[in-house]
Specification:
Elements (H helix, E strand, L loop, with lengths): L3 H11 L3 H26 L5 H4 L1 H13 L5 E4 L8 E4 L2 E9 L17 H6 L16 H6 L4 H20 L3 E8 L4 E11 L5 E8 L58
Parallel strand pairs: 3-4
Antiparallel strand pairs: 1-2, 2-3, 4-5, 5-6
Helix pairs in contact: 1-2, 1-7, 2-4
């Protein structure tokens, strides 16, 4: 079932390409999650430290995914180690709010306290004006799949959303809960940052990560199919009678060779 309200919010806040951005987010997140799970599994460490770097991987993948869209700019928060895409003048920031399935995103602080780089995203951005070059029409291509009745309902949502969006300075937040075992939840919402370090959501929807077409669960390493050193048939010894010319076994010991530098 098409979530027309979520689509309308993306269109009104993120502009004409908003529906395309919204549609691509589950795929970007699931792909990034699986890549970090694979790295964590391959290193075979006792902890999930490699997966923990996903908080840096997601912003990078969002930048890579949307850099070619018309009207998208890149924002580097002061002293941050990442960049963020700014779509229709609205920053899109990923936020890993939990590592488990049960935590309610509604009650989680955005930071303890919120870092200065994150705070800067919720303030007016000093971006250079630029021409809206790049791919366009991708958002409209999604809307073209709607029926006339759905399009009318979408436009009705849009009228109310425009008034709400105009009254607030909103940031798009991609909130997700995950660990090295699974990607549990993924939300897209539009919020302001309160003085209590909590996000004040004007709207939030849970995105369907199963629609990404890629497993959101941990990739299980396949069993090793390489033959072990002791597998296979045992070679039979080649037995033969001793020749008279070989003589009896000697009892002399071979003197050991001198120790070399290579043996040290």
């Amino acid at each position: 079932m098409v979530d027309l309200e979520g689509m309308a919010w993306s269109r009104q806040v993120l502009g004409a390409e908003g529906p395309h951005v919204r549609d691509a987010l589950p795929r970007v997140l699931v792909t990034t999650h699986n890549r970090f799970v694979a790295t964590n599994t391959a290193l075979n460490l006792e902890n999930a430290a490699p997966y923990g770097l996903m908080w840096l991987g997601v912003p990078k993948e969002l930048v890579n995914e949307f850099a070619g869209l018309a009207g998208v700019q890149m924002y580097h928060p002061p002293r941050a180690s990442y960049k963020l895409p700014v779509i229709n003048g609205v920053p899109l920031i990923p936020w890993r709010y939990a590592k488990d399935r049960k935590t309610n995103v509604e009650g989680v602080l955005f930071g303890k306290p919120v870092s200065e780089p994150r705070k800067s995203v919720f303030q007016p951005l000093a971006l250079q004006p630029q021409l809206p070059l790049g791919d366009e029409g991708l958002g409209e291509a999604i809307l073209d799949e709607l029926t006339p009745e759905q399009r009318q309902e979408l436009d009705a949502y849009g009228k109310n959303i425009r008034e709400l969006a105009a009254a607030h300075s909103l940031v798009a937040v991609l909130a997700y809960a995950s660990n090295s075992e699974a990607l549990h939840h993924c939300y897209l919402g539009y919020a302001e940052l309160g003085e209590d370090n909590m996000l004040k959501w004007e709207y939030r929807e849970e995105l369907d990560i199963s629609s990404a077409g890629i497993s959101a669960q941990r990739a299980v390493a396949s069993a090793n199919t390489q033959p072990a050193f002791d597998t296979g048939p045992v070679e039979a010894p080649n037995l033969r009678p001793r020749s008279p010319l070989e003589g009896p076994p000697t009892s002399e010991l071979t003197s050991p060779s001198e120790k070399t530098d290579a043996d040290e």
